[in-house]
Task: inverse folding
């Protein structure tokens, strides 16, 4: 536990900030039109996000916990996860491991989030996406798959 030493020399426990998820308002319109069940699932999975990576490990036990919290079936959880991945709100990294779209959400320090994000530039020809070198190959492939983006560099 970290401590802070006062002027008197007495030590006190350091104050810590509660965990939080950043929601980037620039692209928040992308979330419009989601069903309430998708929002509820998104709020529940945030609690399992890893700091500075946006990764979420959802094994069967965690899915059962979420199903219990939301009073829905495991099938409903699976369908909602599938929907959120099709909409690119979540990305699948591996079986049972998801990643929050770093353009929509961030859990960690901003420099770390920048490494997870791609830079999108608007030009007269449409969007140009510059992939940041540190991004993993799977995320690069997912970004390339997004429809309507004309030029990926």
Result:
């Amino acid at each position: 536990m970290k401590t802070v030493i006062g002027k008197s020399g007495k030590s006190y426990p350091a104050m810590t900030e509660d965990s939080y998820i950043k929601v980037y308002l620039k692209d928040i319109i992308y979330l419009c039109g989601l069903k309430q069940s998708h929002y509820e699932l998104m709020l529940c999975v945030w609690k399992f996000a890893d700091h500075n990576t946006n990764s979420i490990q959802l094994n069967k036990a965690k899915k059962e916990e979420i199903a219990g919290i939301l009073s829905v079936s495991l099938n409903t959880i699976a369908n909602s996860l599938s929907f959120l991945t099709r909409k690119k709100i979540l990305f699948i990294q591996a079986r049972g491991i998801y990643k929050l779209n770093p353009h929509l959400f961030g859990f960690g320090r901003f420099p770390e989030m920048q490494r997870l994000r791609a830079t999108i530039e608007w030009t007269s020809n449409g969007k140009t996406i510059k992939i940041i070198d540190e991004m993993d190959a799977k995320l690069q492939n997912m970004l390339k798959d997004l429809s309507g983006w004309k030029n990926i560099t």
